[in-house]
Amino acid sequence: MSADRQNMDWMLKNLMNEVPGTRHIVVLSADGFRLAQYATDDDTADRLAAACSALQSLSSAVAAEFAHSGAMRMVVIEYAGGFFYLMAAGPGAFLATLADAEVDPGLMGERMRDLVGRLGEHLAASARTGTPPSR
C-alpha cells in the first residue's frame, strides 16, 4: 500500500471516529471509480461511487443552468433512516458519506470540509484513461 493511500485511510478513519453515526465513507473520481473507502465493503463502495458520479453530474448541470456556475460543492440528501453527503474534494474527486439519522448534520458537513482541506493532493483524481485505479 502506498504512503498516500495509507495517509488517506487514516484520515477517513478519523472522520468516522469524529462524527458519531457515520456508516460508510468513500472517495471517488468524477467518473465513478472508487479511490478509497472506510467502513464499507468493496461492492457497496463501488455501487456508492457509481451513484455519486451520476449525482455530481446532475448537480453540476443544475448549478450551471440556474446558478451560472458549473461548480458543485456539496449535496445533502436526507432519507428515511439517515443522511447522504457528497462533497467536491479537488479536481475530479469527491468525498461521500452515509450516516444514521442520529448524525449531527452540521458536524458532518464541517468535518468533511476539514478533511477535504487536509487531504489536498491525495484527493486529486484524473479522468479515466482505460483502466481503473489500483485498489
Automatic annotation (TrEMBL):
It comes from the Bacteria. InterPro entries: Mycobact_SerProt_Inhib_Rv3364c, Roadblock/LAMTOR2_dom. Residues 9-99 form the Roadblock/LAMTOR2 domain. PANTHER family: SERINE PROTEASE INHIBITOR RV3364C (PTHR36222:SF1). This is Roadblock/LC7 domain-containing protein.
